[in-house]
């Protein structure tokens, strides 16, 4: 472990010297002066005064050496389309997109909201923003109109880029009606909406704000738009994530620190070399998509594979065939996808030639032991679990194989990555825990390059949310429980807050509760996460109905349960839909009126909640038990 220990210690003891070296990995148009500005903790500014550009580093910089290498391989099993773009072709497409955006008035510092399915234009649009110095905010295509409206009002975009439709598992989802509804709900008036017409659904070009992309692209076919050289700490993007309040937080990222951190992670963690091919099966709407479909592989000169479709269509062998066909070297997905694949015919995996594949990376949710064992044996290649968050932008815990191929330990994503000063702390005293003791995972100041710089438009929220929850210490809380062993390996033991993780996607139970409360029949509601064999967790809602509705007959209550689940679809999108809606006449609460969510979750998982000295009325627990039993009988 000496090499890793030495690397890690240097990165913590003298971050300035460590990251000054790492910064050589990217191109600086103007060199930086101070490596790290610590004058306003907990804010950290990296590579102060340096000017650079993410699009230049991801694309232009490679043109001299790899113009004819594929930069992007796009495969959609939904539409049957496969397209390849060399670095030179990618450069052309990004310039066209940037020119179109500029013709619609987009300039440096403006926000562009990207609401797109997994199509190449999503990547072009992100990099076009980077080129222009505009700030992208990608909203996951599965989110519903009210969700989108909330993000429009917070981000105040100058432009929205969308498509006629997305497609999932053979079903076409019209986007334009959703965008229409979101725009009419939002207070902010977005001047233009740029429409990528995939010809999957009738494109509604009648609304006055809609502009079709294709004719404009033709107009700007041979254009070259110069990169805006941004100061390292200007914002590159805002990505919204759920927290404990109903209001999503805009995670703001910088330019230079992000580029440097991603480039370093490609060597130290992912071992990706120029010319390699990386397939990250995620969505550009999530942080894994931002970092490891778009920016990191391109900054490091790889070919990135972008995939629209599910892992089991046309059959459960599709991903393995992609590995064979495109000679994929690195693959990255979430454990939930593997739990789906595990149920498929093993012959499908065996039939593919997987010799190109070096390593499989997994992140986004806990990797359970049976899945870890299954995939390690089935693939016979290293399987690297890695732990991080939207906020950090790149792995906090992993096996840094590019530094030292430390052994993996089942149940642990590994050891702290370079730059992360990670401490498990006692939740009551804030003191560091001994090895083997459970506590809250925290990061000491400063966060390394690449991590969030603030909450978009709300510096106070950055400090009050992330840096104020551990007693007596100004440290960053991950809001995850963990335990570290003698060798430094950390095991994650679940969230400390009311955030749940459904199929690798983070959802705030408060957001789902707010969606349900908007229904006239609902008096009170508690949403909890319950263990699920495939999705890791699912949401379950416990609802107290208003007077008359509460006495309704069972069929009426069943109808209402479905209607309530649909309400969540409409407000947040189907990913947030509760797996079950259970009617109760009261909810377990403390005497001070706080919902006892953990007790409810325990009952829903068939466990006893243990001692609850602060409970107001123990009869409420019995109510929940009975209501759950009713459901089981049905
Ligand atoms: P998100 O910001 O949506 O990526 O969610 C981040 C959260 O997912 C973390 O705070 C953890 O609770 C969980 N998470 C991510 N990766 C892992 C992992 N490898 N093992 C366990 N939990 C994880």
CATH fold name of the largest domain: Rossmann fold
Radius of gyration: 24 Å
Backbone structural class: alpha/beta
CATH architecture of the largest domain: 3-Layer(aba) Sandwich
Total helical elements? 21
Runs in which pLDDT lies below 50 for 5 or more consecutive residues are none
Determine the strand fraction and express it as a percent band. 15-25%
Bound molecules: adenosine monophosphate
Q: pLDDT average, as an integer?
A: 94
Domain AMP-dependent synthetase/ligase: 61-443
GO molecular function, one term: ATP binding
Keywords: ATP-binding, Ligase, Membrane, Nucleotide-binding, Transmembrane, Transmembrane helix
Domain AMP-binding enzyme C-terminal: 511-594
Give your account of this protein's structure.
The chain is α/β, with parallel strands linked by helices. It folds into 2 domains: 2-419, ANL, N-terminal domain (Rossmann fold), CATH 3.40.50.12780; 503-631, ANL, C-terminal domain (GMP Synthetase, Chain A, domain 3). It has 21 helices and 32 strands. The strands form 10 sheets. Strands 5-4-17-16-18-19-20 form a 7-stranded mixed beta sheet, with helices on both faces. Strand 26 (476-484) and strand 27 form a beta hairpin. Helix 5 crosses helix 9. The radius of gyration is 24 Å and the shape is globular. The termini are far apart. The model has no long low-confidence stretch (mean pLDDT 94). Bound molecules: adenosine monophosphate. Adenosine monophosphate is lined by residues 241, 287, 363-366, 385-390, 413, 478, 480, 492, 495, 501, 506. Keywords: ATP-binding, Ligase, Membrane, Nucleotide-binding, Transmembrane, Transmembrane helix. This is Propionate--CoA ligase. InterPro entries: ACAS_N, AMP-bd_C, AMP-bd_C_sf, AMP-binding_CS, AMP-dep_synth/lig_dom, ANL_N_sf, Propion_PrpE.
